[in-house]
Structure formats: C-alpha cells, structure tokens
Design goal:
The structure is a single chain. About 10% of the residues lie in helices and about 40% in strands. It is built from 1 helix and 6 strands. It is elongated.
Length: about 100
C-alpha cells in the first residue's frame, strides 16, 4: 500500500532539515530510547486501547542514511515490532524536505 501525506511547515527548509538530521531524538517520540547497537535506532512503546484493555508493544524505529536529491533531502525511516508482531504492522517510509 502506498500512502502519501504532505504537511506545510512555516519554517525555512534548511531549518527543518537541520532539525531532522542533527538530533533525531528531538522529534522522535519522547519515550524513545537509543539502542546500544545502532546509533540511528530507537525503541518506543506503542499501543492501542485504554486502561485494562490496552495492548502495547515495543517497536524499533530505524533511521536510514539521508539522501540529497537536488534541492530535496530524503530521510528513510522504518519501524517494526520487536518479537512477535502479528497485531502490529511494519512501516517503511521516507521523510522528505
């Protein structure tokens, strides 16, 4: 499945690019922690439901190497559930500035 979403930000493209590339921890979920084995990988807990009926899972978020395509910067991002992942889909995406 292919999904595209655009969001216009009232900042200079260079400022957005710096924020994405300089410190991913500043925009990844606050609870994400850096994994020891990979500097561009973080773990975060996600889930759905409420209180007693909440289902949660630890997912790994991986950031690829940024690619410069003319005036556009592309940052690959993946996320997948750790361990058994039946209820939690994987995501492969590109963030573009």
């Amino acid at each position: 499945m292919l999904v595209r979403y655009y969001n216009e930000v009232a900042l200079a493209a260079s400022d957005v690019e710096s924020a994405l590339l300089d410190d991913p921890g500043s925009w990844l979920p606050r609870l994400a922690v850096r994994t020891e084995d990979h500097a561009r990988s973080r773990l975060v807990e996600v889930g759905f439901g409420a209180d007693r009926y909440r289902i949660e899972k630890l997912v790994e978020i991986e950031l690829g190497e940024p690619v410069q395509l003319g005036s556009k910067t592309v940052l690959p991002i993946r996320w997948h559930a750790t361990g058994a992942s039946g209820l939690f889909p994987a995501l492969e995406a590109d963030l573009e500035v």
